Amino acid sequence: MSAATQTSVLEASPRGYKAREPAAPPVRRIVKLGGAAITHKAQLETLQRDVLRRVCASLASDGGGGTVLVHGAGSFGHHPASEYGVARGPLSDPHVRLGFALTRSSVTRLNGHVVGQLVEAGVPAVGLSPLGHYTTSNREVSASGAGAVAACLRAGLLPVLHGDAVLDEQLGCTILSGDTLVRDLAEQLRPHFVVFLTNVAGVYDRPPEEEGARLLRRIVVRKDGSWRVAEAEGGCQVDVRMTADAHDVTGGIALKVEEAARVARLGVPVLIAQAGSEDGALACRLGPRAAGAGATGAAAPEPGLGPTCGSEGTCSEGPAGTQQQQQGAEPGGGQGAAAWRGTLVMLEEEGPGEEAAGVPGAAG
Ligand SMILES: Nc1ncnc2c1ncn2[C@@H]1O[C@H](COP(=O)(O)OP(=O)(O)OP(=O)(O)O)[C@@H](O)[C@H]1O
Ligand SMILES: C=C(C)CCOP(=O)(O)O
Fold first, then answer.
1. Who has greater pLDDT, 269 or 319?
2. Are 232 and 331 in the same domain?
3. Residue 264 CA: distances (Å) to CA of 161, 210, 241, 283, 347
4. Which residue among 47, 162, 244, 308 sits deepest, i.e. has the most Cβ atoms within 10 Å of its Cβ?
5. Is the pLDDT of residue 305 over 90?
6. Ligand 2: lining residues by beta carbon, under 6 Å
7. Which of 163, 191, 219 finishes a domain?
8. How far apart are CA 114 and CA 18, in angstroms?
9. Atom 18 of ligand 1, nearest CA residue
10. Looking at ligand 1, which residue's alpha carbon is closest to its atom 14?
11. Which superkingdom does the taxonomy of this entry point to (predicted)?
């Protein structure tokens, strides 16, 4: 008998009583632990143990209840996936089939490390692979594994999923990124907030190793899914450029921003911060309140967060995942005494002006 059947409840219906699936338990947070943070991306299957240890200790110390953890692949998975063309399929090709197995073998090894570290810290964590629970169709999720995740949560366990090689109805197989998993789980489970932890402080206006890179402090997402930079270090005049490593098969930071925008569009605030740092730990513990926003992410920033960009066209804007165009400057934006450093992605508050402007494609 499955956990879902054991805990099912009886519900009145016009024809008597029937069993129904128990409601999904309240989910406090979904945390994505980036592969770039817990591995050395350029060195095959090499862990950043100190970062992994710090993140697990911090999750353990603020209570793992109502938490779903998803991790990326880093140097466990991206290399074989790229070498064997696993994202394109087909599985009828023996070369791709071997790559599929090698990719899974690698990423499940990393999952073992993450779960092992959490269990050592006293968290009842269990590894849950997307293969077998998730299916895609042309890389889009067609069958969600959220039910299995909810069953683990109901049982008091902390499910630990990972980006994976999965079966695809059109391509035979593909790679399902941890970032996309997070978005699907947010759609299905509606957590209070989502955190993406990675190896840099958040989303910058250009690759952060480039001179003069400026952290985007707040991105607001419109109901049509497009987004704009509402607050950035050094002002809002930004032209956002994102790059990914050559062997990255899932799109790097650009996919993360795209999926973060899709989560925020649901009304679920998203924080992007550095794994292993105090900012990352605060994001996981407090959600949007770490960034000085209200619990929904929609309230005005608290004093100390610094000036924000005005609503009269001074902020960069454009559809998620595309290059942003500069529209004006607000010198000093984001230079306040903010304690928290990271990127908050949240749904734009609907004002009378926006309604009048007729934001297209309003969706939930
Ligand atoms: N504009 C940008 N802002 C922030 N990071 C950027 C930008 N452009 C490129 N990057 C790079 O993106 C990387 C983070 O994205 P990536 O997808 O590799 O992270 P991850 O989710 O931690 O890893 P994985 O995909 O393996 O789980 C950083 O190492 C950073 O150097
Ligand atoms: C390469 C594999 C197996 C998964 C990729 O997941 P991501 O690192 O979260 O994008």
1. 269
2. yes
3. 21, 28, 21, 15, 5
4. 162
5. no
6. 35, 72-73, 77-78, 81, 103, 107, 163-165, 175, 177-179, 249-250
7. 191
8. 40
9. 252
10. 253
11. Eukaryota
pLDDT on residue 352 = 55
- The mean predicted confidence, pLDDT, of the chain is 83
Q: Whose CA is nearest to atom 15 of ligand 1?
A: 253
**% of the chain at pLDDT higher than 70:** 78
Our count of domains for the chain comes to 2
Between the CA of 252 and the centroid of ligand 1 the distance, in Å, is 5
Q: What angle do CA 100, 252, 126 make, to 5 degrees?
A: 55
> Does residue 15 fall inside a structural domain?
no
Please enumerate in sequence order all residues whose Cβ is within 8 A of that of 352, keeping only pairs 6 or more positions apart, or say none: none
Same domain, 235 and 118: no
The answer to whether residues 285 and 62 touch, using CB atoms and an 8 Å cutoff, is yes
Q: How far is the CA of 73 from the centre of ligand 1 (A)?
A: 12
Domain annotation covers residue 252: yes
Closest C-alpha residue for ligand 1 atom 10: 207
pLDDT value at residue 42: 86
